[in-house]
Amino acid sequence: MTFIFNTAEKRQIASRPVRVGLIGAGKFGSMFLSQVPTTEGIKVSVIADLSAERAKDSCRNVGWNEEQIAEVRFTTNAIDLIDTDDVDVVVEATGHPSAGIYHARASIAKRKHIVMVNVEADVLAGPLLAKEARAAGVVYSLAYGDQPALVCEMVEWARNCGFEVVAAGKGTRYLPSFHASTPDDVWKNRGVNPEDAKKGGMNAQMFNSFIDGTKAAIEMAAVANATGLTPAPAGLAFPPAAADALVDVLNEKTLHHRGQVEVVSSVERDGSVIPGNLRWGVYVVFSAPNEYAMRCFREYGVKTDETGTLAALYRPFHLIGLELNVSIFSAALRNEATGSSKVFVADVVATAKRDLAAGERLDGEGGYLVWGKLMPASDSLKIGALPIGLASRWKLTRPVPLGQVVTWADVEIDEDDEAYQYRRAMEREFGSAL
Hints:
By secondary structure, this protein is an alpha/beta fold. It is about 35% helix and about 15% strand. Strands 3-2-1-4-5-6 form a six-stranded parallel beta sheet, sandwiched between helices. Strand 1 (about 20-25), helix 2 and strand 2 (about 40-50) form a beta-alpha-beta unit. Helix 6 (about 95-110) runs parallel beside helix 7 (about 120-135), helix 6 packs across helix 17 (about 420-430) and helix 7 (about 120-135) packs parallel to helix 12.
């Protein structure tokens, strides 16, 4: 996976810019928009958002002038954006799983490349969406700049070099108590002043999904389904680790198996910050295939484990939407994804944050009732686990104790829901291989 564009490709985009339609002008979308005026070869032709005026304000907030804003068509209808002729690549950045599936399928049907910032939708049904896209001859891609695509790049680098990938993942700030975090205590757990959060327009439920472990699980499931790496049966362990100690923390003594996705914590279990942590970064741990490679590790100052076999490569930060152009160019110019679901080996399932009562209505990712736990897809299907992406609006039909996974049998299912139907189709299509 290489993202250095050659002379011919640069000449192509200079004469005909890639036309982009953005669905969702929130934080990620705004970061992307901030780079557009200084990027040769990209033109945003349409932006769809629940509020057209809010989307225009997003453009102003990132430095666009009124003339630049006037060149873009704004709409509140995402399908109108997808249907238009002046869009080559659709960027889905709503963060809403059901909407993401709907928009992705509509884009594929219109033979438009789709860059799925909406990793929640990817984890809910990405393997089937990617298969649909391949059949239509278009690209379905994870978003470069977001951690899953960056981890996929590192995994591909290691494999292309002939190394076995032992572990791969990202960093985050984690404490076991965070699994019970709700929108009421998210700012305390995140270390953010509530007034600053309010001024910044930060959504408490969305940010709580980063705290309670759901987002980490979703991102690692996306990596697993794109690379074939797999989670441990018990899910993420979040071991505390400094960046330069990855091989000491993630090895055969500590991992459940080789080829595992894992998230490392930037703090110890007592909350103390680990110097040189990887809170914002991504990593891959890989193994030397022979004695000669091990000797090369030593000769070139590579930090290894005590056996001299394992080494790690890491990137200390990611720039999120500021890097999205890489996915757009890759799809439009090379017909290549920057990471894409291929298999269904990992799932993220709704897990009770407290004792839940029959009749309560689930409130989704980052809410008050459930958090998303990473699980092997085979185990998820075996117990009939409810995916976190569908754990909203539906009513519980029976109690679910604290810490227990919510199942299909625990909820009142709306069988007419399109996202539900598509998820079940994905399970039938890919579950037989497990």
